[in-house]
Amino acid sequence: MQDVSYPVPNSDAEALKRLKKQRQQSLKGKEVRRQVEGMRMSEREVENAIRVTEEKLGVLKRAVEEGKGEKSEKGAEGPDGGGSSKSLVEEVE
Q1: Which pTM does this prediction carry?
Q2: CA gap 1, 58 in Å, rounded
Q3: pLDDT digits (tens), the chain, 93 positions
Q4: 3-class DSSP assignment, residue 11
Q5: Is 52 in contact with 19 (CB distance < 8 Å)?
Q6: Are the beta carbons of 35 and 44 closer than 8 angstroms?
Q7: What is the pLDDT of residue 51?
Q8: How far apart are CA 50 and CA 30, in angstroms?
Q9: Rounded to whole angstroms, how far apart are CA atoms 63 and 41?
Q10: How far apart, in whole angstroms, are the C-alpha atoms of residue 79 and residue 84?
């Protein structure tokens, strides 16, 4: 019975195909994971940019309001107009 062999249809080739398919699926999963992580970073960056823009807009609005107040007081105070010595750039940074 030792000399009896059973036909095996190219088992090495099939095993290699299975391994290759598993590796491709694994790589595909990793690629999708990287893309999702990239999206999360992009969302975080967008949220941060929106927050910074809103802060700058708030500073600009305050400066405009102060400017309106200074214009109305400028005639009574003289040519320099008084007001804050702090510039917009200093306040934004």
Answers
A1: 0.40
A2: 90
A3: 567 766 556 678 788 888 888 888 888 888 888 877 777 768 888 899 999 999 999 999 999 999 888 877 766 555 555 555 455 555 555
A4: helix
A5: no
A6: no
A7: 96
A8: 30
A9: 33
A10: 15
From CA 43, how far away is CA 36, in angstroms rounded?
10
CA–CA separation, 88 vs 62, rounded Å? 10
Q: Which two tokens stand for residue 89?
A: 């750039």
Length of the chain: 93
Cβ-based burial of 70 (10 A; exposed 0-12, middle 13-18, buried ≥19): middle
41 token code pair: 């970073």
* Tokens standing for residue 20: 């290759």
